[in-house]
Amino acid sequence: HLAMQMPFVLYADFNFAPQMLFESGWVGARVGDVFVPNVQTTRRASRQVLDYCVVYSTLVPFLTLEVVGVP
């Protein structure tokens, strides 16, 4: 499948916890890795992290995830 061969960085509000993405089997050896910010929450009204990145495996060594404050 072509989409699995093209390097990508997918940053999104997934509306589900990163653990659910791991459990789906979509990430890992087939696609890449999940970069999760080191914060307690990505939403003001909850304590969930729902915004994170999925990174194609060949790009993982070149990327880091940095948290920045937003007013």
Give a quick precis of the structure:
The protein has one helix and three strands. It has 71 residues and is mostly beta strands. The longest helix is centred in the N-terminal third of the chain and has 7 residues.
Q: Can you characterise this structure?
A:
- It is a single chain.
- It contains one helix and three strands.
- By secondary structure, it is mainly beta.
- The radius of gyration is 13 Å and the shape is globular.
- The model has no long low-confidence stretch (mean pLDDT 81).
Number of helical stretches of at least 4 residues: 1
Q: Mind summarizing the main beta sheet?
A: 3 strands, antiparallel
Helical content stands at under 10%
Order of helices and strands: EHEE
Give the rounded overall mean pLDDT: 81
Judging from the principal axes of the Cα atoms, what is the shape?
globular
Low-pLDDT parts are none
Measured by DSSP, the beta-strand proportion falls in 15-25%
* DSSP E strands, number: 3
Distance, first to last CA? 41 Å
The main sheet orders its strands as 1-3-2
Protein structure class: mainly beta
Radius of gyration: 13 Å
Could you list some keywords that capture this structure?
1 helix; 3-stranded antiparallel β-sheet
Helix/strand layout:
Blueprint: E1 9-13, H1 18-24, E2 32-35, E3 51-56
Antiparallel strand pairs: 1-3, 2-3
